[in-house]
Write the structure tokens for this entry.
Amino acid sequence: MAKYLLLKHYRGGPERMPIGNVPMDQWSPEEVTDHIQFMRDLADELEENGELVDAQALSPEGTFVRYDGEGKPPVTDGPFVETKDLIAGWMAIDVDSQERAYEVAARLSSAPGPGGQPLHEWLEVRPFMVEPPTVTE
Amino acid sequence: MSGLDEQLKLLGPQVLGVLVRRGADFAAAEDAVQEALLAAVERWPAEAPAEPKGWLITVAWRKYVDMVRSADARRRREERFHDEPEPGETENADDTLQLLFLCCHPDLSPTAAIALTLRAVGGLTTRQIALAHLVPEATMAQRISRAKRTVSDRRLTRLGDLGRVLKVLYLVFNEGYGGEVDLAAEAIRLTRQLARAADDPEVAGLLALMLLHDARRTSRRGSDGSLIALADQDRSLWDTTLIAEGVEILQTALAKDRLGEYQAQAAIAALHADAPEADETDWPQVLEWYDELLRLTDSPVVALNRVVALGEVDGPLVALRALDELPADLPRLVAVRAHLTERAGSLEHAAELYADAAHLATSTAERDHLTRQAARLRQGLAG
């Protein structure tokens, strides 16, 4: 019983999987639609399993913002991260075990790309912090 | 919660227990009971029945029969329904108990069992359970209905696995006090019910354990939510009534001479509760109980807690050597090493270990606590 964040970057798959690194805007429209449908179906399935906490996609247009002193407007800059480090979106799940979290991440990584082939994309899996247990000693 | 809500929350599970005992399909029976409860909310304020439970059973059973008749699986289910009723008897303490065993069925994962137990036996709403677990209501609704489907065709002719039920209740208790629902209080309520119906020293042991820990609830966190270690807690905040009750229940259980892990854990909690100040703790006895608990469970987590007690009895150097025998990847092992290293006087090394332990912590409260320990030592070393 633990929550995990499955982070999707623009990282592509391993070098040996040639389709893993083809940007989405170079796919056919059907391939894009199939990819998005896969994500929706997976989210539905996770909800039916009682495992889905949240699923969100992010706009790639991010800005860095910081405090610049009392009374001054925020300073904006960037983006200076590499595309592959950007977060494309996430799924948050509440599952029985780490194995199950990895299994779901692998499913997400198998989302279809060009030619309907699995993307083998790297997913980052991060456990949520939990509440400390009541019984500690 | 109003008086009526409170009354219905108590009666709902009992009525469900009766329907299930009569042979009703679990999932459909649960729906029928919900409808009966809704009907009660509408009608009782104007005209309260003389026998509320009997009223609910009659209405729920009628709704259940209607459902079964209109369901697709009509024929199959009607056969079961024709075998059925032995109406009249409504008082049966075992009904809720049987329901509890069904909800903690070994075919369910702990997550599913917890959700179903809180819903069907605890009488909490799906929304409340979802809030307490920080998941969307739709997800929790699915988790519960899947669990219902899983146990729907399971028949319990005898009571099932008691150890499994105790484990689920223990997990609910350990989930604590988050959100608007006090899960620790729910766990205590359910364990009290179980203890009334099942004369077993381990049930009593678990109840005692919960009461003794619940007694310390207000002293475990600072006003800002920060974690306060047992040694630093303000013991005047401990609830002496709960402690007295817990100790009494434990003593009665121990007298039966059928020791189990929950009684042993409760005995340790009782020894801590007994000490007016941290330095008056009877550590040799605590250590003996940990030896007992380790023999019963063979759990590495228990072994780690035992090392803490060993450190109090034989000193930090002996404890640090014992720590080397444990698996290095145990949760909280680095935090214990940091504590013992500080007591052994290697402050610089202890500060590093506290920082490492903070990095490994699985809760923000523990992380912040350990970070403050590292900061405290480093400030002392610099100053």
